[in-house]
Amino acid sequence: MTNKSKLAQLKEMTTVVADTGDFDAIAQYAPEDATTNPSLLLKAAQMPAYRGLVEEVIESVTGGKLSSDEQLSACMDKLAVSFGEKILATIPGRVSTEVDARLSFDCAGSIAKARQLIALYEQAGIGKERVLIKMASTWEGIRAAQQLEKEGINCNLTLLFNFTQAVAAADAGAYLISPFVGRILDWYKANTGLTDYAPADDPGVQSVTRIFNYYKQCGYDTVVMGASFRNTEEITELAGCDRLTISPQLLQALDDDYGVLERKLDPESTGDKIHYRLGGEAAFRYELNDDPMATEKLSDGIRAFVADQVKLETWLRDIQL
Questions:
Q1: Integer Cα distance of 132 and 158 in angstroms
Q2: Catalytic (active site) residue 134
Q3: Is residue 1, in this structure, part of any structural domain at all?
Q4: Does the residue 219 lie in any domain?
Q5: Exposed/middle/buried for 123, CB within 10 Å: 0-12, 13-18, 19+?
Q6: What CATH number is attached to the domain comprising 205?
Q7: Higher pLDDT, 240 or 64
Q8: Which residue(s) pair with 269 in the sheet?
Q9: HEC secondary structure over 252-306
């Protein structure tokens, strides 16, 4: 036992990020940064505490009625930015705001949407240095991030499930990647017949560890931010990672635990040299296709984000009837 919680100890070696759109939860755990996505925005927008914010956004965009698809799209962008603006009032760092997942295979469309979101933040008096634009780690998403980074718009490449995606993202100069630990574990539990993994043997933990060590060995500046955790053991096995984005429930569990937290990842101690060379687009697509877990989870993740985007759009229309 120590006089510090595991959350407090984790903050000494890793930047802790809140994975939520709930302002109150963010304020409670005092993270450096926060991330949002369509699923989190849907959940937060429907909370009674934020109904006033939602109605204010609709009124500012349309005068009270979402009478066209263009108005609805503008409302969705403004809502995401309004939540981001409120979140930034409670944290010292950055907020991640996601591009519409329906643009995951549209490089030009993703770039245009990212510029629109940054423009909305700037209209609210928030500089782009406090925002990360989230996009799926498809070939098109990575290419969009490459262009946006050249424009000074930093990107968070999400729905990242394998080493090929991670190397492509770093080669493109992405500011940050979000490898999804828990969803990798979900796939292995569902497809291998093995349902009980020791923390160090968790395939999601092993994936992030390999990516972290390779990045540090190669001198990449791209930040590794583990995401999508299923339990606190996955988090503690990645203590020392650049950043970890954690749900309020798991933040609370870490805050309640006063055991000793050991550093597991260290840029000065990355093990044996990892040898890898990524080819071009054809090689990327082949290697992603050759990984059934990454292929399935990337597709599932895009579909799920699109579904929640559509649910939020439908809900916004319905509350006006």
A1: 11
A2: yes
A3: no
A4: yes
A5: exposed
A6: 3.20.20.70
A7: 240
A8: 266
A9: HHHHHCCCCCCCCCECCECCCCCCCCCCCHHHHHHHHHCCHHHHHHHHHHHHHHH
Evaluate whether 136 touches 159 at the Cβ level (below 8 Å): yes
Domain interval for residue 206: 6-318
Give the separation between CA 99 and CA 62, rounded to whole angstroms.
21
| Distance from C-alpha of 109 to C-alpha of 114, rounded to nearest angstrom | 9
Residue 304: which of 104, 109, 67, 127 has the closest Cα?
104
Write down the H helix ranges in 46-105: 51-62, 69-88
- Catalytic: which of 78, 113, 134, 297? 134
**Tokens at 10, concatenated:** 């984790």
- Please write the tens of the pLDDT for every residue from 283-309: 999 999 999 999 999 999 999 999 999
Query: β-strands 243-246, 15-19: how paired?
Result: parallel
**pLDDT-wise least confident of 62-71, 118-127, 148-157, 239-248:** 62-71
Q: What is the pTM of this model?
A: 0.93
User: 226 lies in a domain?
Assistant: yes
User: In this structure, are residues 205 and 199 in contact, taking their beta carbons and an 8 Å threshold?
Assistant: yes
- Tell me if 186 is assigned to some domain: yes
- Supply angle C-alpha 105, 109, 111, rounded to 5: 105
Least confident of 5-9, 35-39, 97-101, 128-132: 35-39
Dist CA 165 CA 142 (whole Å): 9
Return left, alpha or beta for 159; rule: phi > 0 is left, psi -120 to 50 is alpha, else beta: left
Asked if pLDDT for residue 321 goes beyond 60, the answer is no
* Number of domains making up the chain: 1
Amino acid at 182: G
